[in-house]
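A reminder from the course coordinator: this example appears on the midterm review sheet, so study it carefully.

Given structure:
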């Protein structure tokens, strides 16, 4: 689920933006990123469902943060996955 959530460039942009924040972000992400408000909401929901971010409604704004514990877990999983799957020099799709 985490890999699927990170499979969209807009979600990667949201994660990069949130990672640069010193504290949780209070505000409208659609004002910071060139994405429509409804689209941002859909991407935030996918990231939240995957456990990569957390958010709380504090009227009139919403607070967003990277879920550090799950982010570290995702980092570990991806590192292990890529370490176990070395790429061969020439694959079956190689023209050489």
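Designed residues:
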């Amino acid at each position: 689920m985490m890999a699927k959530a990170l499979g969209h460039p807009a979600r990667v942009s949201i994660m990069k933006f949130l990672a640069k924040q010193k504290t949780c972000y209070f505000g409208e992400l659609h004002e910071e990123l060139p994405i429509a408000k409804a689209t941002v909401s859909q991407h935030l929901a996918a990231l939240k469902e995957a456990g990569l971010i957390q958010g709380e409604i504090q009227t009139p704004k919403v607070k967003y943060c990277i879920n550090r514990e799950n982010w570290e877990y995702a980092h570990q999983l991806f590192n292990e996955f890529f370490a176990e799957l070395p790429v061969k020099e020439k694959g079956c799709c190689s023209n050489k």
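The mean pLDDT is 87. The helical segments are 2-5, 9-19, 29-32, 37-49, 68-84.
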